[in-house]
Amino acid sequence: SDRRLRTPCVKTLVHGDQRRLFNTSNSRMTIMPAWVIDRYGSNDVLRFTKNAGFPIINYPNEVVVQVHAAGLNPIDVSMRGGYGAATMAMKRDPLNINQSGSEFPLILGRDMSGVIMECGLDVASAYFKEGDEVWAAIPPWKQGSLAEFVVLSANEVSKKPKCLSHIEAAAVPYVAATAWSALVNTGGLNKDNCAKKRILILGGSGGVGTFSIQMLKAWGAHVTVTCSQNAERLVRGLGVDHVVDYTAGPVEVPLRALEKFDLVLDNVGGDTESWALGLLKPWCGAKYVTLVTPFLCNTDRLGIADGMLQTGVTVASKALKHLSKGVHYRWGMFAPNGLALDDISEMVDAGKIRAVVEEEFTFSQVPQAMLKVEKGHARGKTVVKISSGEDSSE
């Protein structure tokens, strides 16, 4: 579905006491504050700069958004260390024209809530116009949201829910798009077929888990989750029907005592595959969907061609193995989806889904925010309020 608008023009942006001209439709570039990395590594590779290149509209269906808040996810920590670098390089440069390392300086951050500043030629005003408050999940191969501005395809952007602040809104899009891809696109669930289905979420207190709980409960499903005891109050507050404490012993033991499930969503990985598929109803179309897959690790380790071949062999062999037992084995992948965010925005404004923000950081505290995410054991999302960066130093 195309989202189209009108001719871009030169605009004056006022930010605090700063005033600058920019034109996103040609090669004139200005600079902006951002957190970047110049190489892959640990948290010390993060660098604040006031001289990051201003994003330019290169395609007529793109929009430039001023970022008000950015949500952080585990993938940001992984990408900081180089995870998925080979696949992302292919997505950015399919013909392999640029030299290795051309992605630097790289801006991390997959979640964004902000205001549209400029629209490309093909973005229709029926969908978006300058000044609209929007949210988006940014694809990992694009420059991220830990910056004052970002450029996105209009198909990746959606109107922000009216009832959420930018801080709250920035906690939702990436986990929402990931959960939607896993549960709807891969798992086959929707608002019309979810009633009374039994769903198990392994790892229910993180970003994807807390969002999935709310969406599934809004659609009438029976939801069981695993989490630690100190997260039980959070997930029960989101409407969970049954909680299993993974700190009390081997989690598969109490789960096996329960009625079988129609779908298992695995946010944990590890050895869960060895027992989780046994919790599904056999020969009923039940699915195990895992978000912890070796796809990007394979391409990083073996290269694009061999990595994709290895991935195909792995998923096909596992799918056939479990199909013989009457259950379906699937991998879930993040996919940017502005249309899904449209539906989710309506659910948020209807009071069916709320943002779960665990902690808020300022723009100058991005390294601390990254360390928070890196420690794991999330109880919702970590969000950064984006400012002009005057309180940081180059």
UniProtKB/TrEMBL annotation:
Gene for this chain: rtn4ip1
Keyword Nucleotide-binding tagged: yes
Pfam family, one: ADH_zinc_N_2
Protein name in the entry: NAD(P)H oxidoreductase RTN4IP1, mitochondrial
Family: Belongs to the zinc-containing alcohol dehydrogenase family. Quinone oxidoreductase subfamily.
Enoyl reductase (ER) domain segment(s): 41-384
Pathway membership: Cofactor biosynthesis; ubiquinone biosynthesis
Keyword annotations of the record: Membrane, Mitochondrion, Mitochondrion outer membrane, NADP, Neurogenesis, Nucleotide-binding, Oxidoreductase, Transit peptide, Ubiquinone biosynthesis
InterPro entries assigned to the protein according to its UniProt record, in alphabetical order: ADH-like_N (IPR013154), ER (IPR020843), GroES-like_sf (IPR011032), NAD(P)-bd_dom_sf (IPR036291), RTN4IP1 (IPR037397), YIM1/Zinc_Alcohol_DH_Fams (IPR050700)
Annotated compartments: Mitochondrion matrix; Mitochondrion outer membrane
Transmembrane feature ranges: none
Coiled-coil ranges from the UniProt annotation: none
GO molecular function: nucleotide binding; oxidoreductase activity
Gene Ontology CC terms, in alphabetical order: mitochondrial matrix; mitochondrial outer membrane
